[in-house]
């Protein structure tokens, strides 16, 4: 193993101020920017690290910046207050001019400050910066406040050719020679990120269903503008083995639907994979028992989300009372003394988070949870059926992308998935109909709000599920 590199760096003053006007225009256009619809009015610098000197042919800065945005107005005519918003991880390349291959990565031309007269761009599009990140992970470098850490039992060969993946939404990923994939979080928060925590725990358990972390990037930064005013480290990226030739479950399901092929065998296999991951997580990390007090809090949260959704999506109003019964039925069981086990779960499981290797083996990826939810909430133990409900909703979505929709296809897949889960877990999630209905209703309510805001043409997909769930009798 190469000797670890430790390097102290200094970042020139005035760097963020010189980039500010360019970032205000560029940042909201990125797919992973979470604050769309509200202008960026300024930035706080959480941390800055010079990875390559800007005075050379190619400079490279690693920045953690907190964007200021006005809050959404509470009512028409009310002016929203401005407050520090989300913290983003940026890789800023500096060149005299961009070659044509890097034109799509352009951020802009700097007119003042320490890099005045030069061009800045999204550096992950560039081979040299991507090479630098892998080499730093390989050698366990410490550069300024950045710590590049790794599992010493796994080898990282130098010289793997990088390429930036283009399909990412909330993060960015670089693939190295079809051997590794480096997932870089874009919107970051201090604390233990489940996308590193859970795969590490599963690797300790020897669970083969999740690629084990090979290396990871952490930053020590005191974020005085953040909501928690904490000095906890930020997990910024995770390097894992790349499953070469893999197809994600969503893509595969749509392909089989288009051909009129049955997907039940694959759905059953995904169910087994899910149960194996849940079983390993239950062994690796503490589980808790949910009694009436805990379930009341859970039901209250579901009820509040439903009430807010009814205001946001008028089409929900005719179903509101019957959907609410899905939650009160769960509360009634809890009040009778029923308890449930909660454990660590995936938190955002759907077909797109499942990978099928060319050998037909299914893996689960992306354990970050729902990025919009607070980190503490994403790390809370929850009933495993929450993940099951997410998968069941995903089968519905796939079936309704076709014209005409194929609800019977979804029904068969849902049953096969639960059967596969039962084979591996020893318990069928359908034996908990009240709990499953509540979680599936909560998920479909969330989907209805999302589709109404972002993809109105897709609103009929969750509405069809809510129509079924409103009339469901789980007893």
In short:
The chain is an alpha+beta fold. The protein contains 12 helices and 19 strands.
Question: How would you describe what is shown here?
Answer:
- The protein has 475 residues and is an alpha+beta fold.
- It has two domains: 6-241, no CATH class; 247-470, Alpha-Beta Complex (Aminoglycoside 3'-phosphotransferase, Chain: A, domain 2).
- 37% of the residues lie in helices and 21% in strands.
- It has helices spanning 15-26, 127-138, 194-204, 249-259, 264-284, 292-312, 320-335, 375-378, 385-399, 407-425, 433-454, 460-470; strands at 6-7, 42-52, 59-70, 82-95, 106-109, 119-122, 142-143, 146-150, 162-164, 171-176, 180-185, 187-188, 215-219, 234-241, 247-248, 288-290, 340-342, 354-356, 362-364.
- The protein has an eight-stranded mixed sheet, covered by helices on one side. Strands 2, 3, 4, 5, 6 and 12 form a six-stranded antiparallel sheet that branches. The protein has a three-stranded antiparallel sheet with strand order 15-18-19.
- A hairpin with a 3-residue loop joins β10 and β11 (180-185).
- The longest helix is centred in the last third of the chain and has 22 residues, at 433-454.
- The chain is globular, with a radius of gyration of 24 Å.
Mean pLDDT: 92
SS element count, helices:
12
Distance between the termini: 60 Å
Q: Outline, from the CA principal axes?
A: globular
SS strand fraction: 15-25%
Strand order of the largest sheet: 1-7-8-13-14-11-10-9
What is Rg?
A: 24 Å
Structural class of the helices, strands and pairings? alpha+beta
Kindly state the percentage of residues in helix: 25-40%
Largest sheet composition:
8 strands, mixed
Number of structural domains: 2
Low-confidence stretches: 74-79
């Amino acid at each position: 193993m190469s000797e670890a590199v430790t390097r102290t760096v200094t970042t020139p003053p005035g760097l963020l101020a010189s980039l500010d006007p360019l970032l205000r225009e560029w940042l909201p256009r990125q797919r992973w920017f979470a604050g769309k619809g509200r202008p960026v009015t300024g930035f706080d610098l959480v941390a800055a690290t010079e990875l390559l000197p800007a005075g050379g042919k190619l400079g490279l800065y690693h920045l953690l910046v907190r964007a200021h945005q006005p809050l959404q107005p509470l009512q028409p005519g009310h002016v929203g207050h401005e407050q520090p918003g989300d913290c983003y991880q940026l890789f800023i390349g500096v060149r005299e001019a961009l070659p044509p291959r890097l034109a799509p990565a352009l951020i802009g031309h700097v007119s003042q400050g320490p890099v005045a007269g030069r061009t800045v761009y999204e550096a992950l599009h560039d081979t040299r910066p991507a090479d630098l990140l892998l080499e730093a992970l390989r050698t366990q470098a410490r550069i300024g406040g950045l710590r590049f850490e790794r599992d010493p039992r796994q080898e990282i060969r130098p010289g793997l050719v990088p390429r930036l993946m283009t399909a990412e939404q909330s993060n960015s990923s670089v693939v190295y020679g079809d051997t590794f994939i480096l997932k870089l979080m874009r919107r970051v928060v201090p604390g233990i990120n489940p996308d590193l925590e859970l795969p590490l725990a599963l690797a300790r358990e020897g669970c083969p269903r999740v690629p084990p972390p090979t290396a990871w990037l952490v930053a020590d930064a005191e974020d005085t503008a953040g909501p928690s005013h904490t000095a906890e480290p930020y997990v910024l990226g995770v390097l894992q083995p790349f499953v070469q030739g893999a197809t994600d479950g969503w893509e595969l399901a749509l392909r089989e639907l288009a051909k009129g092929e049955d997907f039940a065998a694959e759905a059953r296999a995904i169910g087994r994979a899910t149960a194996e991951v849940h079983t390993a997580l239950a062994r690796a990390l503490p589980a808790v028992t949910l009694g009436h007090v805990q379930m009341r809090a859970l039901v209250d949260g579901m009820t509040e989300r439903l009430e807010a959704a009814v205001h946001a999506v008028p089409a929900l109003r005719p179903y509101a009372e019957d959907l609410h019964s899905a939650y009160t039925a769960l509360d009634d069981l809890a009040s009778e003394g029923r308890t449930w086990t909660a454990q660590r779960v995936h938190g955002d499981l759907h077909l797109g988070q499942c990978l099928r290797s060319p050998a037909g083996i299914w893996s689960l990826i992306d354990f970050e949870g729902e990025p919009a939810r607070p980190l503490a909430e994403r790390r809370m133990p929850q009933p495993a059926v929450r993940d099951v409900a997410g998968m069941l909703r995903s089968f519905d979505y796939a079936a309704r992308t076709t014209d005409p929709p194929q609800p019977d296809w979804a029904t068969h897949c849902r049953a096969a998935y639960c059967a596969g889960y039962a084979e591996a877990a020893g318990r069928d999630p359908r034996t908990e109909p009240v709990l499953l209905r509540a979680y599936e209703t909560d998920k479909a309510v969330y989907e209805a709000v999302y589709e109404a805001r972002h993809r109105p043409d897709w609103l009929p997909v969750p509405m069809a599920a809510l129509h079924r769930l409103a009339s469901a009798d789980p007893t």
